[in-house]
Each structure stands twice: as structure tokens, then as C-alpha cells.
Amino acid sequence: MSKQKTLSLTTHGQGLYEFTREAETWVSEQAVETGICHLFVRHTSCSLIIQENADPSAKTDLENWLNRLVPENDPLYTHTMEGPDDMPAHIKAILTNVSLSIPIVDGRLALGTWQGLYLWEHRHQSHRRSVILHLSS
Strand 15-18 to strand 46-52: parallel, antiparallel, or no bridges (unpaired)? Predict the structure, then answer.
């Protein structure tokens, strides 16, 4: 069996946007005891991560670290027509993930106690992002 859903997520600039609850709700509605849920983001300037969802300082530290690793306005960038955050956003997306696979155990995503699903927006402007959830059992 195979099922799909597209989640539409609105971002308001750079940052981590949690969507664990939306994904967990959809998976539980499918009444599948075991399987795998594959997630894929259809964009080149954002990414998907599994990260701690208890202490907000973890998100802040991740954002600060990645922004330091991939700075804006690097003179080596030639892809600059869409703004100083565009090329760094593409680099950040390849350093992180555009897809994730999570086992389904007992009808639920097999995430750990402190793990959450996040869309990581790498652009400054607001965007509407599409995340495809594909369930296989």
C-alpha cells in the first residue's frame, strides 16, 4: 500500500518551522501499523531536518552556526540576482537534507522523545513551501 499527502507550510523568513504534529496526525489517520514515511521538500532553498524540539536554544544555536558557516555576500558567489541570501540558501540546502525517511512503528512515526520534524527556511522572505509525505507499508 502507498499513500501520499502534500503539506503546505508558510514561512516568515529564515528559521526552523516545526511540522511534527501535522505529519504525525496524517500518519495516524492512515491506520498503518508498520511501514515507512518518506518526506521530500520541493524547493532548493530550504531543507528538512529532525532535531530537538524541547529546548529552543538548540534551534538558535543551529541557525547561528549554519549562518556563520555559509555567510551572505561572499565575493565568490556568482548566483546573486535573487539577493544575497539566495546562493547561501542553496548551499545550506545541500549541507542539510531535502528528504527524510522515518519508520512507522505501531501506527506512529518512530521519532525519539525529543525529536521533531522541521522545515528549515534559508531565505529571508516569506515563502509557501510544499512537503510531500509518502507512506509505504
Answer: unpaired
Nearest-angstrom CA–CA distance, 79 and 35: 41
pLDDT confidence bin for 44, thresholds 50/70/90: very high
Reduce the DSSP state of residue 26 to 3 states and report it: helix
77-90 confidence digits (pLDDT tens) = 999 999 999 999 99
Instruction: Give SS3 for 31.
Output: coil
- Asked if 102 and 110 count as a contact pair (C-beta separation under 8 A), the reply is yes
Q: Is 63 helix (H, G, I), strand (E, B) or coil?
A: helix
Question: pLDDT for 2-17, tens place per residue?
Answer: 999 999 999 999 999 9
Compute the C-alpha angle 45/48/49, nearest 5°: 135
β-bridge pairing 126-136 and 115-121: unpaired
Grid cell in block for residue 91: 548551499
The amino acid sitting at 111 is: L
